[in-house]
Amino acid sequence: TAELVRRLGGEIIGYAFLAELDALNGRGKLGDAPIVSLVH
Asked: What is the mean predicted confidence (pLDDT) over 12-20?
C-alpha cells in the first residue's frame, strides 16, 4: 500500500489503475499524486 511505501522512505509519484469506480471516491482518498485509470 501507499502507506507502507511512505513508512519505508519511498515517495508516491503516481497511481495507475485499469478500472476506477467513481462512486467510491477513491481519488479523494489518495492525495495529490497523479492518477491514471483506463476505465471509469
From this structure: 96
Where does residue 2 fall: left (phi above 0), alpha (psi -120 to 50 degrees), or beta otherwise? Answer: alpha
Q: Can you give the pTM of this predicted structure? A: 0.74
| Sign of the alpha-carbon dihedral angle for 26, 27, 30, 36 | positive
Contact, 10 vs 31, CB < 8 A?
no
Q: How far apart are CA 5 and CA 18, in angstroms?
A: 21
CA-CA distance, 33 to 10, in Å (whole number)?
Answer: 13
Domain range list for the chain: 12-39
